[in-house]
Amino acid sequence: MSAMQHQLAWYVAGPVLGLCVVACRALFNGRLGVTGGFAELVGRVARGSVAFDWRGWFALGIVAGGVLYALATGGASFTGYGWLTDELGGLGVGAALLVGGVLIGYGARTAGGCTSGNGLSGTSMLTAAGLASTATFFGTAIVVAFVIKGLT
Question: What is the pTM of this model?
Fold first, then answer.
């Protein structure tokens, strides 16, 4: 495993992410989240424009960063997904992740926001909706983790 494939330490990533939330608020008076950026991209491209605001460039930066990382580490690797990798193989996992991502994006857009936007920006602004939704996300994740562990 190359050195680039290790995760960034939480005590580095957390403060950097927090600074990104503060910077978005201070510079753009906006909330950090991916759903808004993706909606910006789709909306502008559908109208035949490539004049994106910061949210569109943020979403493009996420995609470009993923592509650059994959190129720097020798290509996309769809391993390490437990039973999903065992059952579907590399390309099957990639397809499942793509379909899952599209469904999550559709649901987030329909709901008016995503977990990252609510968790990062909503809780930092102490909004009731941000705190309630983040508590719901985490609580559900904990329950599901215990259920899956109990079934295996």
Answer: 0.69
